[in-house]
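Put briefly, the fold is written as integer tokens. The lines below illustrate.
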Amino acid sequence: MGSAPVAAGPGTVRRISLRDAPGVVPLARDFARQALHDWGWLPARGADRRAAAEDVLLVVSELVTNACLHAEGPEDMTIGFGGKVLRVEVTDRGAGAPAPRTPHRAGRPGGHGMFIVQRLCLDWGVVRTPGVSGKTVWAELGAPG
């Protein structure tokens, strides 16, 4: 799992700093929601578009929450749309590697974020820059048809 950073055309990539921001998960969701609106995903026309937009917002929530809980907090988030694929990237300061946990284990609440990301996305992965602490966790979702 590894890939290059967002490579979409002009005007289709948005970035927000999340470092030390209060209410970081709602902030990231609102930022993503505005990008989806600007790109015509919202307001959703039809069930497929509505489901696609909701999936993007859920993936944003899961990636940012994961950075908060397991990676010393998010640094920034990038969202890019290149026509057929939307890509979300969350950069954090953590050294660990996210991994899906087997879901639905009785008595073990939480820990299902990356399982959700894996199920909703076309692909996801982690990019590390040599000599720099932290990582970028990315996820790609298909555009509604």
In short: The first helix runs from residue 24 to 38. The radius of gyration is 15 Å. Confidence is low (pLDDT under 50) at residues 1-10. The beta strands are 13-17, 74-81, 85-92, 123-127, 135-142.
